[in-house]
UniProtKB/TrEMBL annotation:
This is P-loop containing nucleoside triphosphate hydrolase protein. It comes from Jaminaea rosea. Residues 698-876 form the Helicase C-terminal domain. Residues 1-11 have a biased composition (Basic residues). The keyword Hydrolase applies. Residues 477-662 form the Helicase ATP-binding domain. GO terms for molecular function: 3'-5' DNA helicase activity; ATP binding; hydrolase activity; nucleic acid binding. GO terms for cellular component: nucleus. PANTHER family: ATP-DEPENDENT HELICASE HRQ1. Signal peptide: none annotated. Residues 1-85, 114-134, 300-324 are annotated as: Disordered. GO terms for biological process: interstrand cross-link repair; nucleotide-excision repair.
Amino acid sequence: MKAAKRKRRASSRPINVDASDDEEEAGPSGSSKAIKQEPGDDATQAIVIKDESDEEDIKPLIHAPQPLRAPRTPSPPPRQSHTHQEQIIIAAEEQDSHELPLDVEPRAEAHNANFANTPDAEPPPEDADAGAVPREDIPWPEPFERLEEIFKALNTVYSFCSARKHLATTFDTLRSSVEKLVGRELEVHHIAQLKSLLPDLINFAYVDSDALEVHLDAHKSDASRQKRAEQDEIYEEAARAVREEGSTYEASLARPSGAGSEVLPSVAALQAESSRSTHTRGDDYVLLFEFNDGTLQGAKATARGRRSIGMRRGPNRDANKKQPLRRLYDIPSTSSMKKLIDKRNAKFESAVCELLAACQAKGEDSVDLLVAAANDHVPLNPETAERPKGETPRKKRIRLDYLMNHPDERPPIKDVIDEFEGEPWWCDQVVPGGRKTIPAREARFDGLTFVLTQELVNALWATRKIEEFFLHQAEALNYLDEGLNVIVSTSTSSGKSLIYQVPIVRALETDLNSTAMFIFPTKALAQDQKRSLEDLISSHVGLAEQGVMVATYDGDTDKELRLDIRDRANVIFTNPDMLHQSILPNEHHWRRFLRSLRFVVVDELHTYNGLFGAHVSLIMRRLRRMCNALGNRGVQFISCSATVANPREHMQTLFGITDVQVVTEDGSPCGAKEWLIWNPPLIDEQDPKQGRVSAYAEVSKIFRHLVSRGVRTIIFTKVRRTCEIVISQIKKDLLLEHRHDIVEKVASYRSGYSAQDRRKIEQDMWKGSLLGIVATSALELGIDIGSLDAVIMLGFPYSISSLRQQSGRAGRRLKDSLTVLCCDPFPMDQHYARFPEDVFEQPDSALSVDLSNDFVLEAHLQCAAEEMPLHLTDDAAYFGPHLASLCRTRLVPDDDGFYHCRSELRPNPARQVAIRGARQVTYSYIDATPGRGSRVMEEVEIDRAIFEAFEGAVFMHQGQSYICKDISHDMRIAQMVRADVNFHTRPRDHTDTDATETLRIRALRGSESRAYFGKVTITTHVWGYFKVDKRANILDAVDVDCPPFVRHTRGFWLDVPMWVVQCLVDEGIQAAAAIHAAEHALLSLTPMFVVSLAGDVRTECKLALKERVLTSTRKRPARLIFYDLPGQNGGICEKSFEHLDGLIRIAVAVIEACGCAEGCPGCVTSQTCAYANQVTSKAGALAVLRALIGLEPFVRQDGAAAAAASPSSPQLGIDENPLSATIAEAPAVPLASDATQEVEEYDERLPPSLEENLRRLEGFARMARDGEVDQRPAMGKSLLFSE
């Protein structure tokens, strides 16, 4: 993407924008004007004017002969780097002159010549920053001086009103106070002129008046009213304090004589104005004024990470500097208010100086230019204002309807990307090196070694226009014809589904009793593939009328249909859960199907990994065992996946088979794919502490830019709540742009929706009636949801495999496509923004499953023994060498040498084995809105419901907000009522992960430290919630009474000595950040020793709000703690416990060898961190881990040990120091009644490959310390993971 000066500014390029549905008024010379008002969000945008020919715009849609080509937006011309004020000049030069009054007396012509038409004026140097011109160097015209008075008054009044967050800063609320200060009337065009000068600082637009209601009357408790009264009193005190310094403020405002005596309005006056502005007239819209540079320092809440809430603050960089604690209802001090006011005043002065300098250089009249540019910024009331001329919604609807019906006519993706630079909000969001083009690929074909029937050939042509097969399709079909098992590992959307559909149809052609089983990880994917196979069979003349039955058998299948499916189905689409809990335990009902089973298709093989993969592998072995017992030894297995590094080995392990043929050479064509790594810009580049523009707002802008050009787009979010927030944001933004035609064509899709809702959305996607989708990973896998052109990922997914799977959802019809990774502001995402090559070069992960995990194996042996008694000789081929020992110790033998399930687990032990984690009780969310009839909206698991369903909580469903009116924990029912509110709720909670009972103790080599294994309890308390606005400002804090949520599991822990904590504090490192980062380092390396997935083992993550405090009454033990996912009983922690010495030493070597400064995904940050890695310290993690294995915590650059405390050093100041305020000495955990205090000694021996890698890493670390290495190893190519 073309490099441009990184500056928040309006583009001078024209854009297509809204106008009325019916009015199209031609401007001079047949042109029309188009004015766009960008909806207010975290980064208010500049507005530009465009001259565009109506005739040229509409003619291609009406008069063009067939074949019709869609109008395409021209590629933008090369952009020049202009200051914002120069762009005002450019925009004004491009438009006709419009009269707009300025707050100034009639001017003489001589006045204009003072500053605009001076012939001898020398332009500033080209590389000079116009904004840096001193005020005294250029005389200010009187209109600008009077405008400055208005700005200063407005700035002051707004600052005090916004500090009291319950006041809506509408134009009417602010006007009377500003008029008193300046002594004259405030008009809308005054603020329009201010916005034209400072488009990024000011938001001035009409909003829905209902959205300003931040508190519903039904929820005004006595406590809430008392808090508000206290806030009023505090506000009045602050106002009085300012009045006492009135002379200072009068001077800063340049108040004219005779102005009002009150510097600030009273609370009562403000409330009266606010009430009148939103209620008395009964208008649907009110005019809202806001500054976009954030608010005064106060309570903030964030939604970053899973269930994270809290106040958004940076770390206290001065450990010894005591700062007062800030309460939720504290009003900012007078000095802090004045600091913010002065900062904005300086921005105004700089902007005026910049404009005057630019006008002087170009010989233009600055006043006329300002008046002309302000035309674009006069807000339009959506209900009453006259619409601007130009590109009307009618024209946009015609264009969009045409593109919906002719999707191949949409603009090329490259042009769409270039047009980003023409958007008013564009400011080089694509990071350096963040654009990559993957070139198109031509098709390659090959022939079959067998002959297809003419009926099948005709069906393939009728459904897919297939005349010949791609190279990989032909190769796989030939292997299957030979009776072999096949795995196809080619790119997404390469036609892999045809590889298993053709053999099934051929089997049915020869024997109508043949059966096949499709196993998919998600219901959406199963529905998609079922529809595709049904189309092929219905187009087959020989099978269409033979009663071939294709059915879905999953949790949504009606019980009345299940019997018919068992008796008649030829092909079933199911999932591992149904095979495990329903089909195999009831094998006597399925014998007809299993005897005739020809093919088992397991798609998306990469999802079966780690602990879940071990469960599925043993289920597959139980299936093979049952088929073999029924005399069916000819079952063939077919698997497909696009992101597997070791396809042959993984399929052999998963199914317990050896004859596997791998197909990896991709013969399918594909269009060019464009990649963009997109980082939201800073709110203020001069003040990075204000953070970045909301990622939600950025995604909405990208999405609207794409869909308005007919680019079918899907947005992937990581959690359900984000999905709902994003769809709501997009719909609101589209409505503000009057794009009702697009609102009807966007939808959200996630797990939790009812089966009927999901099926309807899937059908709409397939038919092409939707233009955009916001989804979770439920749509990540290979479902064909129509012709998608673009994928937007909000935040980096949890793995590189997921990222590539999501990217593959676009471009499925051979067209060019786009993938945008929009980074969150957190360390993990910002790492990829700094190093985008890691996204493109990181290799796929090798997959593995651990069949030696006795916890998992025993569970499935109990299930297999109930299905058919086990025999040690016959069944060893299915369950491996551990079969004999587990049968003799855990199962029940009989006199004939067979082993049976234990009686307490019968009659269905499979129901006791949760392959995806423990089954949870669910809460029913009921839509109890009056007049709508009660209905169940969602069934939600308890571990979600505790954070979503409490009285007063805002819950979002399909982009609409509901308020929880009542919840019954006994009946597990939550009553939800539809409500339009402009706030959401964040739970106030904490989760304690505590070791409760010690079962084993072990030593670490060369150290006095001990590691412990035992029982762990996770307790979550939700005691209240925050009401939070769109900018994360906390509007209110409410207390609730919820029962604690308690879970039990097993794990291991290592206590960090307090002398190590003292060392960290002495080095200025936050102890909690060091411990948290050390936990991440060990967690990320666990799969090297024990086969597992991210999430199979978890740790206690740290939340910034709770750690960055001066004092705390909730202190956590100085302890690294890890636990198995509750309910899975995977035994991963117990296995890791036995490899801890090697695990810690490799973690130390990895951190030392990593060249990053503050931590990256290669060392101490984790993609699965619950709180987005906001509290981590790489140096601290290294110190903690070194101390645990007997090394000095800190080492200087020359390799010598740094001075550090020892176990006997005095522990002074730990309790008082804010760097250790949340940490306490870890208490001893009691021994279990049947455990001993014996310390186990392990003589660990690393595998040769790991031993070699450890030596290489240690050598690399020494080189880095000696300064011989100054380049960090590339992600995915590290010395550790290269093998």
